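can u do me a favor
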């Protein structure tokens, strides 16, 4: 199956999961997974959230993403991937003056 994000309407989300600023997202969603091509604007962040019945992987395509994972802070750069296993908490932010573009996959485990 080919997923063409150019053919999926872009959502413009303010304060994603209780965070701040703007996130633009194109999402493919079915009963198996949520697959998102997203752009996090400078200064924007998500809210802190836990993955229950799922996990999340975030692959950075451009920019630099700061991730708060449990009690650590990680900087994820181009070509790197952040993994948040089931039952863990994370939130992320763009601390730079450039957009961060990433691909995120959140499968349904149950």
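np, heres the sequence
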């Amino acid at each position: 199956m080919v997923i063409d994000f150019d053919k999926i309407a872009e959502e413009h989300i303010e304060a994603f999961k209780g965070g701040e600023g703007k996130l633009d997202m194109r999402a493919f969603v079915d009963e198996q997974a949520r697959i998102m091509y997203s752009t996090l604007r400078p200064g924007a962040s998500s809210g802190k959230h836990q993955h229950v019945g799922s996990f999340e992987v975030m692959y950075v395509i451009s920019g630099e993403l700061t991730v708060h994972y449990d009690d650590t802070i990680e900087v994820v750069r181009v070509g790197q991937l952040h993994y948040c296993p089931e039952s863990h908490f994370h939130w992320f932010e763009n601390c730079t003056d450039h957009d961060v573009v990433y691909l995120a996959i959140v499968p349904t485990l149950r």
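The radius of gyration is 13 Å. hope that helps!!
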